[in-house]
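Pinned message: reference record for Group II intron, maturase-specific domain
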Amino acid sequence: MEISLDWSNDFYGPGSWRMGYSNRLPSVRHKAESSPPLLANIALNSLDWLLHRQGLHFVRYADDFVIMCRNRAQAEEALTIVQSHLEGDLELKSSPEKTHIATFSQGFSFLGFDFLNHSVTMRTKSLEKFKAKIQDITERHHNLDDKLIKRINQIVRGTANYFATWFSHNRRLFKETDKWIRMRLRCMKYKRKWRTDNRRLRLKHLQRTGLLSLYDFYQQPA
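Predicted structure (C-alpha cells):
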C-alpha cells in the first residue's frame, strides 16, 4: 500500500490544474496493491463518505485517489484521517516509507500522468511501457506488413485515447514519439540500424499504410 501527500500553499494560484480542479490544492494520494477495481470501490466507499463529511475535496479512481487541501496543516490532518480509517477501520496496512509531502513545484504522479507546476504530461514510466510494446513488435527480424501496422495502431490508439486529453500537455512528446516509431519501421524495412536510414522510407509511404499518429489524436475535434 502506498499513501502520499501533495500540497501547495498557492491555493488561489491562477491557471493551475489538478485533475479537473482549476486551483492549486494540496492533495493526498493513495495506492493499494493488487486490488481489483470493483473490490477497491466497495472497500473504499466508506472512505469516500468519511472524506465528504470532513469537507475534503478528492478524486478517486478505484484504489488510486487524491485529496485536495487548502494548506499543509490540512494536508497533514487529511493524511492522519486516511491512515486512521484505512488501518483502524478497514485493517489495511500503510507504508510509512512511501508517505511524503510534496508541492506542485516538486511534482507528483497520478493515474499515469506527471503533474509539475502548470504542466500535466504522460508519466515517464508510462512512456517507457509504451515504447517497450512498440519495440517488441518492431524488431528488425519482423516483417513490415499490414498485420504489423494494425498491431502498432492498436497500441497507439489505446495510448492516445487515454493521454491525449484536453488538460494534458503531450503534443510535443507525441510528435517526438511518432518520429521514433517511424524510425523503428524504417529499420525494419531495410534491416539496418536506424541512425542511417531515416529518409529511405518516406513519411507519405508510411501514411499510406494506415499508420496512426499519436499527435493526430490531439487534432481531432472533441
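Pinned by admin. Summary line: The chain is about 45% helix and 15% strand.
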